Amino acid sequence: MDFKKVVIAGGGVLGSQIAFQTAYKGFDVTCWLRSDASIERATPKFARLKEIYLNTLEAMKTNPMAYCRGLADSKDLSDAEIDALKEKVIAAADSIKFTTDWDEAFADADFVIESVAENPEDKIAFYTELAKHLPEKTVVATNSSTLLPSMFAEYTGRPEKYLALHFANEIWRNNTGEVMGHAGTDQKYYDQVVEFAAAIGMVPLKVLKEQPGYILNSILVPFLTAAQALFANDVADPETIDKTWCLGTGAPMGPFRILDIVGLTTAFNIVAMNPGSKDPNDIHYKIYHKLKKYIDEGKTGINAGEGFYKYN
User: Fold this and answer.
1) Which pLDDT tens digit goes with each residue over 13-46?
2) This prediction's pTM
3) Is 310 exposed, middle or buried (0-12, 13-18, 19+ CB in 10 A)?
4) Does residue 144 sit in helix, strand or coil?
5) Across the beta sheet with 28-32, what order do the strands follow?
6) How far apart are CA 170 and CA 17, in angstroms?
7) In the chain, N or C: fewer CB atoms in 10 Å?
8) How far apart are CA 264 and CA 152, in angstroms?
């Protein structure tokens, strides 16, 4: 794997995390966004990530429980070694380039990770234009949460160099990298992406066949949907549902805390793809409108300062 210049398309919750983690691990990172307004909205996310990384590393000096697998290979680091990692955080934050220009972003890219909205039409439009600007060498991956790479491979103009690389939220802590090809993915490029995932501090998880939701979201999405259904049917409020789950299982957070981290817009886009979201008699219709109300009020999750919960 000889990737050097990596471009992340999209600066949302996960796009910003992927870009920051990749820069932290020493790659030349550009974040492509659709507009100057998108850059303005993304900037606070990157500032927040910088503070999280610095504060977590500082906490690791005195608290072994603060250790995050994506930040360091070992818990047993001296204060000087941790300070060196903090310098890498500062360098990463300063090095990431932002642009809305297609050629500036992609003309010399080794690897592109698409992290645009979880909407098939948006992704098709993106890939159709992207194909006009990429050099032959570029490998492309989607970070889609639920959509299959085979849905978009033909639009990339390089189906053999196209596959999926999916990350969990808070990737510096939950450092999974699910790698999933489609029938036309060349094994050579699959292996390169596995190597890249390890190079940025992830644990590569090889998905052996196409599966909507990969491994993680095949488990997580039904769980979150069940919680949202309880809320949409007025069985209980989000706080009570979360409390029930945490008390009953010992889990550190409940489904609505998780939704705030994932971002309500992503959850909304996923439920919107379900045909039931258009049927007033279907639970997905109720979930759709519950989420829409929060989003219309600007309560899109932790990055907005409020979702199902308020954040300082």
Assistant:
1) 899 999 999 999 999 999 999 999 999 999 999 9
2) 0.82
3) exposed
4) coil
5) 97-99, 28-32, 5-9, 111-114, 139-142, 162-167, 176-180, 203-207
6) 7
7) C
8) 24
